[in-house]
């Protein structure tokens, strides 16, 4: 949902491609006004969300190391549970997104955009959850 709102907000602001070219913080989601740009924006959103998810998972493992590293058995048990949970969540995310995009024809732009948006949204939600675990 964040991705949809981001896309709508960017469209509403009317940021132009020329502005994006002069702005070092520009993304493919700046000034989206055609299908190709929408596809590029959805891909960027997915990649960014998945990168953040990976970073947040690694940060969680570091927090666990800091908090439980002195007790190897407890550390190993907890990190094992975290890795198992993350793998199960990834399977659930992929399955849920497959259901969500089902009506669109596989390989079409609509399918790819919907799949990217779903994966980005769910990855963002998981990132927030991971950030909340093992906070001191």
UniProtKB/TrEMBL annotation:
Residues 1-20 form the signal peptide. Pfam families: LprI. InterPro entries: LprI-like_N. Keywords: Signal. The keyword Signal applies. Residues 29-130 form the Lysozyme inhibitor LprI-like N-terminal domain. This is Lysozyme inhibitor LprI-like N-terminal domain-containing protein. It comes from Pseudomonas syringae.
């Amino acid at each position: 949902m964040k991705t949809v709102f981001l896309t709508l907000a960017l469209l509403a602001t009317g940021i132009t491609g020329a502005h994006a070219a002069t702005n070092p913080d520009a993304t493919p989601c700046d000034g989206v006004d055609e299908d190709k740009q929408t596809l590029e924006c959805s891909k960027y959103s997915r990649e960014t969300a998945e990168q953040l998810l990976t970073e947040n998972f690694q940060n969680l493992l570091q927090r666990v190391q800091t908090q439980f590293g002195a007790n190897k058995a407890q550390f190993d048990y907890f990190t094992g549970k975290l890795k198992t949970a993350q793998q199960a969540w990834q399977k659930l995310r992929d399955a849920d997104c497959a259901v969500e995009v089902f009506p669109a024809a596989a390989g079409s732009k609509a399918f790819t955009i919907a799949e990217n948006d779903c994966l980005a949204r769910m990855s963002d939600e998981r990132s927030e959850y991971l950030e909340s675990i093992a906070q001191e």
